[in-house]
Amino acid sequence: MLYQAPRGTNDILPEDWPYWRHITSTIERLAGLYGFERIDPPIFEDTDLFERGAGAGADVMVQKEMYTFEDNGENSLTLRPEFTAGIMRAYLEHGMKVKPSPVKLYSIGPIFRQERPQAGRYRQHTQWNVEALGELDPAVDFEVMSIAYNLFADLGFQGLAFQVNSIGCPNCRPSHIAALVEYFSAHRDKLNEIDQQRLALNPLRLLDSKEEAMQGLIEDAPRSIDYLCDECREHFAALRGYLDDAGVAYTVNTRLVRGFDYYTKTVFEVWAEGIGAQAAVCGGGRYDGLIELLGGPPTPGIGFGSGIERQILTLKAQGIIPPPVPAPQVQVSYTGRDEIGRQAKQAAVSLVSELRRAGIGAVLPFGDRSLKSQLKSANRANVAFVVIIGEGELASGQLTVRSLADGQQQPVDRGAVVAWLQERLS
After folding, report:
1. Among 226, 288, 302, 418, which residue's Cβ finds the most Cβ atoms within 10 Å?
2. Rounded Cα–Cα distance for residues 9 and 39 (Å)
3. Most confident segment among 127-141, 268-282, 284-298, 324-338
4. pLDDT tier at 60, thresholds 50, 70, 90
5. Is the peptide bond before 14 cis (omega within 30 degrees of 0)?
6. CA distance 52 to 316
């Protein structure tokens, strides 16, 4: 083969589209129930938007993982590595703060990260993204978490539960970070190069380290919930109360953090069974400092992202079969030689068009093949009926309709065949 898909990208083949259609249609339905509106920011933005949004303690994504290029005007542009910064830019640019609060938005589309590919995570992958802007109320946190949970519940995911934590705010988080720095500095010799960089730039991310040698250290590390100010403590307690009242399973996971400076208070993930050690199918949190970081007024917000490819992996791992994509139910076949064959084919083309206009999926077997070959194609296409047009049908005005379920055939008047099929296919 001369060419293959670039590393970290994935072809969405026809056999996978039932999963995609099932997930996206469920998202659209839930968005309507919850009052979320769709927004689609550009696939690329000014590089500075993502760099500024990441903050001074940015994770390695900003340094190594973004796909950045210059256009003909020597402007630095970047394929979006995440949705949130672009949506915040659109919120500010279009004056959306005048809309009723909270402004509830969602997006579905590709994001791009030049990272090591792994199961369910590609360098180009499709994300469902949800944001709620303008309210600090912990009930909004519960609302955003609920739409995520209900998607996975409606899809049939098993073993659903929240992992939830509070990482505090700019008033109380510095005390926790100082405690982390003191604690991990005493064990610097056990940190690899990346974790030593995190200790200097973003100590919270040490709690997210996957290094085996770090796990014991992390278990004994200072916990953010022990350093919360009164406001953050009350916010977290209210959120947990809403989860308790709803009977939703959750675990307070004090190792759960986010990689960017603008995250505050609530961070969460949804975990599901059946996808091995990487159980998270959704992750998000509150980012009350982001819009201010981008030059706007202080504006609270909370959101999450969930990769659709990962959702599909979970559906397959748990043996959940999506509804089939609607397919043609009728094949119109034609037979005959010379002028009779040409007339039969023309009549078949005309009937296929009429059936489609009536909302009946129909296919035509192209090429001048034998009727036996056409019937084999109908079986492979899994249609319910084959309408046969040949010399006898042209002469009598009655078409032969064959049911593939039982092989029975019967004549039907040409003028009544569409209604006849509609009645039986309904």
Report:
1. 302
2. 24
3. 127-141
4. very low
5. no
6. 38
Mean pLDDT of all residues in 82-101: 95
Contact predicate 165/141, CB 8 Å? no
Structure tokens belonging to residue 17: 């589209």
- Residue 30, token pair as written in the block: 């839930």
| Alpha carbon distance 327, 372 (integer Å) | 22
* SS3 assignment, position 281: strand
Q: Can you give the C-alpha Rg of the chain in angstroms? A: 29
Burial class (CB in 10 A: 0-12, 13-18, 19+), 203: buried
Neighbouring C-alpha atoms within 13 Å toward the C-beta of 5? 9
Lateral strand order in the sheet of 68-70: 44-46, 76-79, 68-70
Strand duo 301-307 + 124-133: pairing: antiparallel
d(CA 153, CA 171): 36
The tokens describing 101, both together, are 């609060």
Residues 229, 234, 238: CA angle, nearest 5 degrees: 150
Query: Which pair of structure tokens corresponds to residue 80?
Result: 């979006």
The C-alpha angle with vertex 26 and arms to 288 and 267, in degrees rounded to 5, equals: 25
Residue-wise over 97-111: b if at least 16 C-beta within 10 A, else e?
eeeeebbbbbbbeeb
Handedness of CA 351, 353, 357, 363 (dihedral sign): positive
Instruction: Give φ, ψ of 2 to 5 degrees.
Output: -75, -40
Residue 61: closest CA among 112, 110, 113, 119: 113
Cα dihedral across residues 338, 341, 345, 347: positive or negative = positive
Sheet holding 409-413, edge to edge: 362-363, 330-334, 385-389, 398-403, 409-413
**End-to-end alpha carbon distance in the chain:** 46
Q: How many residues does the chain have?
A: 426
* Residue 66 to residues 69, 122, 218, 323, Cα–Cα distance (Å): 10, 13, 29, 36
DSSP 376-396: HHHHHHT-SEEEEE-HHHHHH
pTM for the model stands at 0.88
* Separation CA 335–CA 374 (nearest Å): 9
The 10s digit of each residue's pLDDT in 122-162 is 999 999 999 999 999 999 999 999 999 999 999 999 889 99
Rounded Cα distance, 81 and 124, in Å: 9
Answer yes or no: are the C-beta atoms of 125 and 214 closer than 8 Å.
Answer: no
Q: From CA 105, how far away is CA 37, in angstroms rounded?
A: 5
- Residue 302: which H helix or E strand, with range? strand 301-307
